[in-house]
UniProtKB/TrEMBL annotation:
Record-annotated HTH gntR-type domain positions: 1-69
InterPro entries, alphabetized: Aminotransferase_I/II_large, HTH_trans_reg/aminotransferase, PyrdxlP-dep_Trfase, PyrdxlP-dep_Trfase_major, PyrdxlP-dep_Trfase_small, Tscrpt_reg_HTH_GntR, WH-like_DNA-bd_sf, WH_DNA-bd_sf
Name of this chain's protein: 2-aminoadipate transaminase
Keyword Transcription regulation attributed: yes
Keyword DNA-binding in record: yes
Highest rank taxon of the organism: Bacteria
Any GO MF annotation of the entry: pyridoxal phosphate binding
The encoding gene: lysN_2
Signal peptide residues on this chain, from the entry's feature table: none
Keywords, in A-Z order: Aminotransferase, DNA-binding, Pyridoxal phosphate, Transcription, Transcription regulation, Transferase
PANTHER family (alphabetical): HTH-TYPE TRANSCRIPTIONAL REGULATORY PROTEIN GABR (PTHR46577)
Amino acid sequence: MSQDSSGRIVAGVREWITSASPGARVPSNRALMAEYGASPVTVQKAMQQLVRLGLVESRPGAGTFVRSARAPRSVDYGWQTAALGTAPAGLVGLSSTQRTVAPDAIGMHSGYPAVDLLPGRLVRQALVRAARSDAALTRSPAAGLPELQAWFAGELASAAPVGITPASARDALIISGSQSGLSSIFRAVVGVGQPLLIESPTYWGALLAAAQAGVTLVPVSSGAHGPDPEDVERAFAQTGARAFYAQPTFANPTGAHWPPATREAVLETVRRHGAFLIEDDWAHDLGIDADPRPIAASDDDGHVVYLRSLTKSASPALRVAAVIARGPARDRILADRAAESMYVSGLLQAAALDVVTQPAWRTHLRGFREHLRARRDLLIASLATHAPSAHVESVPAGGLNLWVRLPDGTDVLQVVRECEVRGLIIAPGSEWFPAEPSGAYVRLNYANADPSHFAEAAAILGAVLEES
């Protein structure tokens, strides 16, 4: 009732303002309470909303008045063209996955799961407890909260084979999301102008981070089972690269999951060339038909720089991730992060630690897995029925996405635009290639949109493909 009364007050005052002069005094709160039969709190909320809308202004001690309209004027920013110069390489607009779309659209472009798949209660309770702790008022260490460092290191150590010295808490660096970690790793480990091997296709954010770090990308073709180890060997030999960036577990966008033989062969190649494997374990908590087995767990001589985030499985609001690295590489990455952002919010770190150490965290992950399986299978079935020319080349064993190949010769961008006109938002596959796309692809996220709309979404895509 309070919300309805507040809305009526806002509507009434807005109508009154249309005939009032700028600077006119708005009826007092007492008058509005009497006219609308509302409580003081409701009237106050309505006035706050009117202030936010820029319709009225409050003058302490004098009252509330109709805000004077400011005449719009044309502003010329042309001077910035010469001041800024040529745009830096890699500085482009937002990815299609970052777009905000209309509420009634079917959004299959996002890189995140739906809110109802996340442990909302766990996160909210953790944030409340963290806000009441010293973490809300103190500066955290540059490397992160020791307890959270220990948790990330322990997670990786639990997968270590017999005979491998596991990572320690000191090896873990807490960072504000994996994207910032990629930038620091590329700068600290690879270096400006140096070659970096990278899977193709691969995560668009890694391409952006590499461009901003000034490294030179060397694409290595990667399929449903990862890259051919011989291609990796050849690329290292030809380029003298210092590192290879890859997502061996449920890769974004393809969902590729490297088999044990590929993992072992690539790690051996990296060791033989005295290089680094930058292992982005973004989907560690998103397994469906397979469990994550980080390559970093089998490395104890510092060749693997490991990256893991909680953003997709806990909450996008908890921008907390970790880099696990050993030796001088660890120190260089820490120095870069400290120069970039000083430290990660202790409040977010404390909340993240609270979430992942609750017994309900494991329960959440088990349920999450089943929801992802149901959504993935439903979208695949919907495409088979309503968009048979959209081919899912490989069913992903984990992650959030389907990598869908369209018929050869398809104008992907035109398909994406036409789908949007009809209320379906999808991501063009070209964003995930470091060089020319190897085919006509789109990426569909099955974890974000309401699954009751999957059949409709597939029907829209199918109709657009038929017409094109």
